[in-house]
Amino acid sequence: MSNASDTIILGRIGAPYGVKGWVKINTFTDESTGIFDYSPWLLGPAHKQVTVDQWKSHNNGLVAKLSGVDNRDQAEMIKNLDIAIQASQLPELEEGEFYWRDLVGMQVVNDKGYNLGSVKELFETGANDVMLVQANFNDAFGQKERLIPYLMDQVILDIDKASKTIKVDWDPAF
């Protein structure tokens, strides 16, 4: 149905809940119930399209009844499948805002023109978000990876989507 790069994984189907086809939902969204803002869902590598008939909070988690899943056996068959959506379902961002997925693969260059490498991934820490930058093969400072704080206007000076470059105030020796 779609290319994997055109989809975003928002969660995973958990264990069956009850006998009427309900399943537990493990969500990767910032706000746990935010996963229900999107429809349809694409399940597993085949991207089988499903809609959520009902959902509710249960204890400290979420459970949902999906279309076409009407008993415990069917719920067991979709257990552990990823829940994805089409990237086009994400809301449009304001100027100067970026989805992390848009930053992965961009070149990171410091304010003196030194190419630090490319963004491998981003992740959250307690204090701030961090970019994991894979250093270039011939890095003059012998670095393989760098952890660079994602702090706009302090460390991150500019993000140019057209040239796929992130300009940073960062010493290449770190």
TrEMBL record:
Residues 95-169 form the PRC-barrel domain. The keyword rRNA processing applies. Keywords: Chaperone, Cytoplasm, Ribosome biogenesis, rRNA processing. An accessory protein needed during the final step in the assembly of 30S ribosomal subunit, possibly for assembly of the head region. Essential for efficient processing of 16S rRNA. May be needed both before and after RbfA during the maturation of 16S rRNA. It has affinity for free ribosomal 30S subunits but not for 70S ribosomes. This is Ribosome maturation factor RimM. Pfam families: PRC, RimM. InterPro entries: PRC-brl_dom (IPR027275), PRC_barrel-like_sf (IPR011033), RimM (IPR011961), RimM_N (IPR002676), RimM_N_sf (IPR036976), Transl_B-barrel_sf (IPR009000). PANTHER family: RIBOSOME MATURATION FACTOR RIMM (PTHR33692). Transmembrane segments: none annotated. Binds ribosomal protein uS19. It is found in: Cytoplasm. Belongs to the RimM family. The PRC barrel domain binds ribosomal protein uS19. Residues 10-88 form the RimM N-terminal domain. It comes from Pseudobowmanella zhangzhouensis. HAMAP family: Ribosome_mat_RimM.
